[in-house]
Amino acid sequence: MKTRKILLVLIVLLGLLQIKAFPQAFKNTDKARQYFYKLDDTFNLSMVTKDSLFFADYFADEFINCTPLGVINNKKEEIETLLKLPLLHVERTASKFDIFTYSDKIATLCITKKLTRKDSSIQYVRRTIVHKLVNGKWKIVSGQGTTVLPKYVE
Predict the structure, then answer these.
(1) pLDDT-derived band of residue 82, with 50, 70 and 90 as boundaries?
(2) What pTM was computed for the model?
(3) What pLDDT is stored for residue 152 in this prediction?
(4) Is the dihedral of CA 137, 143, 147, 151 positive or negative?
(5) Into how many domains does the chain fold?
(6) Burial of 34 (0-12, 13-18, 19+ CB in 10 A)
(7) Does 13 fall in a domain?
(8) Residue 45 is assigned to a structural domain of this protein
(9) Structural domain of residue 104, as residue ranges?
C-alpha cells in the first residue's frame, strides 16, 4: 500500500514537472499570449536590474538582433548592450498596436516599449521578437527594434 502511494505521488509530480518544463501546451491563443506577455514583463525588469543570467538563458544560442541603430548583433553582443543601458524603468505601451502570433513551435510578439533612462529621458522602441521552442523551452531566436516618435505611440 505504501509503495502504491509513493508511486502515485511520483506520477503526479512527474506530470506537474512536464507541464512546467513544456510550456508550449497552451489551451488557446489567449493563454499563449498571457505566457509571452508575462515573459516580456520579466524581460523588461531584467533590463533594469541587469539580470545577465536571465538573458543568457532566454536568448537562443543562434540569436540574432537588429538594434534601433541598425546594428546587427548576436546573443553575447545583445546582452552586453542591454547591460550597459542606464535604465530606470521599461514597460510596454501603446497596447492597441500590439501584434501576437502563435503556433506550436513559433511565437511572435510585436510591441512598443517605453524606456525611461536614469537621466529621465524617454525612448520608445517598437520591438519584434520571435520565439522558438528549443528543447522544450521557449527562447528568443531573433529580435528587431525601431525607434518610434512619441506622437506615434499614443
Answers:
(1) very high
(2) 0.81
(3) 86
(4) negative
(5) 1
(6) exposed
(7) no
(8) yes
(9) 27-152
Q: Which long-range contacts (CB under 8 A, 24 or more apart) does 68-71 make?
A: 68/123, 68/125, 68/145, 68/146, 68/147
Looking at the domain assignment, is residue 59 inside a domain?
A: yes
Give the confidence band of 4 by pLDDT, cuts at 50, 70, 90: low
pLDDT at res. 104: 82
Which residues, 6+ apart, have CB-to-CB distance to 36 below 8 Å?
100, 102, 107, 109, 131, 138
**pLDDT over 90 at 126, yes or no:** yes
Q: Which three cell numbers stand for residue 90?
A: 521599461
Residue 15: inside a domain, yes or no? no
